[in-house]
Amino acid sequence: MVNPARQELLAEKHARYIVEFSKDESSFEYFATEHFRLSGVYWGLTALHLLGRQAPLDGAEIVAWVLRCQKPCGGFGGSERHDAHLLYTLSALQVLALYDELDRVDADGVARYIAALQQPDGSFWGDEWGETDTRFSYCALSALWLLDRLKAVDVAAAAAYVAACKNFDGGFGCTPGNESHAGQAFTCVAALDIAGRLDLVDRDLLCWWLCERQTRSGGLNGRPEKLQDVCYSWWCLSALSILGRLHWIDRAALTDFILDCQDEEGGGISDRPEDQVDVYHTFFGIAGLSLMGRPGLAPIDPTFALPVEVVERLRRRRRNSSGGPVAAVFVAEGLAA
């Protein structure tokens, strides 16, 4: 049963929580999260965009700060004082995409940085220190798609490596032979979607495994015998959405679980009811509701984790620049004039 004070999405309170959190530079959390601040900015901004309340923050100031996080190698660090990593390179590009400022970066330079991290087996290191994870495969392909530079890497090899991480239950692990995890289900399915190789996914088996993640609470967990957590509302639902199986879960029960994780006083969403809220779970709770078509929320793209309107804007621009059907209309109109 959802707390009566939380039966509706508290959009205004969530927006105010994100904005106030972003401006508090004296809290313990501000200093403790410095190393992944770029991802935090992406989570908060995207949540505000989905809520239709992105105006309160200074976009020009945010873009300038993001650009200061870029390193000479071409990649971005989690903040100005931290080294480049694929995770934060993607977050940086996602933030710039939200503000339609991707043209402010040297796309070829970023692509060279990412390409240098691809290994002979098709996998990607997260940074120069050599950790391999299918998260990084997704980050690499997603970042390159945003920049329209997928040809900079061996996409076929990247897809083959992701497929090698598939398990008997249909799920995916961080590396070949590792345990299936709902987070990896998203990163692997989305990476294969970008690569045009969804044929490598055992759709029904994986989606069955993802549906088994729903607990009696209505919430989803990441692995068998684990507790439910709001963030898996995104990790599981995004993969189900990409694969056309979103209707396989009890969406009403999941919606109630997410709503019950709201803080009706200060705003924000937590991992489970009555826990401490944070920007991470606030974003993924809102994103999960968006995937389920919650009224009042902008739709989110399940592959790129960006508002649909942002992804469509990039697609339209590419069609225009490549002389596609839309460009042909403009040419025809010019000739007619």
Can you offer a commentary on this structure?
This protein is mostly helical and 337 residues long. Helices cover 51% and strands 0% of the residues. It contains 15 helices and no strands. The protein has helices at residues 11-23, 28-32, 37-51, 59-68, 86-98, 107-116, 134-147, 155-164, 182-195, 203-211, 232-242, 251-260, 279-291, 308-321, 325-336. The longest helix is centred in the first third of the chain and has 15 residues, at 37-51.
Mean pLDDT: 93
Tally of separate helices: 15
Tell me the distance between the termini.
64 Å
Largest sheet: none
What key phrases describe this protein's structure?
mainly alpha, disordered C terminus, 51% helix, globular
Characterize this entry briefly:
The protein is mainly alpha-helical and 337 residues long.
How do the helices and strands line up, and which of them pair or pack?
Layout (H helix, E strand, L loop, with lengths): L10 H13 L4 H5 L4 H15 L7 H10 L17 H13 L8 H10 L17 H14 L7 H10 L17 H14 L7 H9 L20 H11 L8 H10 L18 H13 L16 H14 L3 H12 L1
